[in-house]
Amino acid sequence: MEEPLVPLVPMSHTAHIRSHRKPRSNASTMAMRAGVAGGILGSVAVAGASASAYAAEPVTQTIELPTLTADVASQVAQSADAMQQTAANYELQAERDAATAKAAEQAAADLKEAKAEAKKKAEAERRAAAERAASRAAERATLTSKSTSTSASASTSASAPASGSVATVVSFLKAQLGDAYVLGASGPNAWDCSSLMQAAYKQVGVDLPRVSQDQSTVGTDVSLSNLQVGDILYWGAKGSAYHVGTYIGNGQYLDAANPSKGVVIQDLSGYPATGAVRVL
Predict the structure, then answer these.
(1) Residues 6 or more apart from 98 whose CB is under 8 A from it?
(2) Does residue 253 contact residue 174 with C-beta atoms inside 8 Å?
(3) How far apart are alpha carbons 21 and 275 in whole angstroms?
């Protein structure tokens, strides 16, 4: 028996090209697709149920972590600023304390130096102060005044020098009239009171001490009512005299008075001497 003939179905003109062939579907592929679809739908259903459950539950607590963190940062910054300011204040106070201590030390040193300088000046001006006092009193009389001499000054007047030695001393002294007074100077154009006396009496071989205190202790003590030309007059206590001069007669004496007068002749009545000594 012959098999029946199967009619031939004409093929598409593109059927021989693989990409134009219609893919075949099989059972396994369809099953896989169905499973995937079912899984997706199940997940969607579960998610929907969960969302509904959470949506139904009320919120009872709110955590404000960002706000809390910002507050803490601000407090920390403020605390750091405060500590920095405190440290700066301590440092400034320390600098002020150091400056105060240094200023106190400097003030103490300055005071000590000032006291030493004052003491030195006082010592140097001790004799000069007494001579300035003598100068103020002597300014009331003129160098050539003789008419105002009292009887006391007349009794102390002496005759002309009795020896050449006295004349030599007086001559030397008058030759220095107008010279300057300089404390500590010893001639030839500037003197103080004691250096002038020393130089004058040295002309006749009498060696006097350098200072007025010692010159008041040499020779023989003489009463002021019994003066002779050439006697040495002194002002101040014997042994601590602050000024000396030479009596030249007629109630007058010659001395290196002070910086404003220099070597001059003055009236004894204007500033009476304390005592006198005789060395000639």
Answers:
(1) none
(2) no
(3) 164
The residue with tokens 């995937």 is 36
Is the model more confident about 254 or about 68? 254
Per-position DSSP letters for 160-203, written without gaps between them: S-SSHHHHHHHHHHHHTTTPEE-TT-BSSSEE-HHHHHHHHHHT
CB 176 within 8 A of CB 225: no
Specify whether the CB–CB gap between 234 and 128 falls below 8 A.
Answer: no
Are the C-beta atoms of 252 and 138 separated by less than 8 Å? no
Locus of tokens 């002294």: 173
pLDDT for 103: 87
pLDDT in tens, 231-245: 999 999 999 999 999
Q: Which CATH superfamily is domain 128-278 in?
A: endopeptidase domain like (from Nostoc punctiforme) (3.90.1720.10)
The domain segmentation of the chain, as residue ranges, is 78-124, 128-278
Kindly report whether the global pTM for this prediction surpasses the value 0.70.
no
